[in-house]
Amino acid sequence: MDKAYFDVFEQKTRTELVSIAQSAGLIGEPLPLSDDFSEKWSDFAPAYFADAVPEIAKYPLVSMAWAGYVGMAVTYWWDSDWEGHKNSSYQTLYGKHGFDDLDEHVTFDLLKLDEKQAENVENTLRNCGETAISLIRHENIEPQTRDAFYAYARCVKVMYEIGAMIELNSLGYKSKRVF
């Protein structure tokens, strides 16, 4: 499969996941993300994949959905103190149990969400993760191949972006037409 195939697949995934997050009331119109977000994902992706890929067999949803929490954390840093955090390492997002409780660390320790907010985010990221996994399966890509990894990597990147959009919305950022 070629790059164009995966570009189309990524856009299809993004459209589906944005719709889920909109239905949950966690984002409005999708916001364009600054280069800061994509550069930070480029920095974090190798370490994220090192943690997430071994989890695919037993915990595919965790492997997929935790990227949303990473996107939320990066967005929080971007809004609150980017100069102080733009060089922070991915491992800064670990909880007491490393990758296993990254979601709780970001949700409660960093973002300080209340139980109701945390539950809505968790349910939404779970739904997005399940949808992304389903989209990969519907492509009939042979498991454990290079193409399977490429599809997975594209979905994980979209999950990161969804997390970023959720946090931007939470912080009050809105898309406004200028002209």
Can you walk through the features of this model?
This protein is mainly α. The protein has one domain. The chain contains six helices and no strands. The protein is globular.
Comma- or semicolon-separated keywords:
179 residues, globular, mainly alpha
How far is it from the N-terminal to the C-terminal residue, by CA? 40 Å
Mean pLDDT: 94
Name the overall outline.
Answer: globular
**H/E element string?**
HHHHHH
- Kindly provide the radius of gyration, computed on alpha-carbon positions and rounded to a whole number of angstroms: 15 Å
Counting helices, strands and paired strands, the structural category is: mainly alpha
Number of helices: 6
- In what range is the share of β-strand residues? under 5%
> Describe the biggest sheet?
none
Number of strands: 0
Low-confidence segments, given as residue ranges, are none
Q: Roughly how much helix do the residues carry, as a percent range?
A: 55-70%
- How many independent structural domains? 1
Compose a concise summary of this entry.
The chain is mainly α. The protein has helices at 3-23, 35-52, 60-85, 102-110, 115-138, 146-170. 69% of the residues lie in helices and 0% in strands.
Q: Topology of this structure?
A:
Layout: H1 3-23, H2 35-52, H3 60-85, H4 102-110, H5 115-138, H6 146-170
Helix pairs in contact: 1-5, 1-6, 2-3, 2-6, 3-4, 3-5, 3-6, 5-6
